[in-house]
């Protein structure tokens, strides 16, 4: 399963919306349920799913899902 597929599953679980279909250009503005509080829950769930830790500086610079996927792929291969 690709990083994007796993990330999509996390978003669906956290936001309780099975209709979410992430793509590299998806941003918080594209998903109604994705607000600042749910963002924290998403990050925590991503850390659990991928068994890694994300730093605040890494997360704050993410402009879209594609950047999130790239960050996760870098951390997984490090």
Q: Would you write up a description of this structure?
A:
The structure is a single chain. The protein has one domain (3-77): Non-ribosomal Peptide Synthetase Peptidyl Carrier Protein, Chain A, CATH 1.10.1200.10. The chain contains four helices and no strands. The protein has helices at residues 3-15, 36-50, 56-60, 65-77.
CATH class: Mainly Alpha
Q: Which term fits the overall shape?
A: globular
Averaging pLDDT over every residue, what do you get?
Answer: 96
Number of DSSP helical runs: 4
The CATH superfamily title? ACP-like
Low-confidence stretches: none
CATH topology assignment: Non-ribosomal Peptide Synthetase Peptidyl Carrier Protein, Chain A
Radius of gyration computed on alpha carbons: 11 Å
Number of domains: 1
Count the beta strands: 0
Order of helices and strands: HHHH
User: What is the second-level CATH architecture?
Assistant: Orthogonal Bundle
Strand content: under 5%
For the biggest sheet, the summary is: none
Secondary structure class reads mainly alpha
Tell me the span between the first and last alpha carbons: 19 Å
């Amino acid at each position: 399963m690709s990083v994007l597929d796993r990330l999509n599953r996390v978003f669906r679980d956290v936001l309780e919306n099975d209709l979410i279909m992430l793509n590299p250009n998806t941003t918080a503005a594209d998903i109604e349920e994705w607000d600042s509080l749910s963002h924290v829950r998403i990050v925590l769930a991503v850390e659990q799913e991928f068994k890694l830790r994300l730093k605040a500086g890494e997360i704050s610079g993410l402009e879209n899902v594609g950047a999130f996927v790239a960050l996760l792929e870098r951390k997984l291969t490090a």
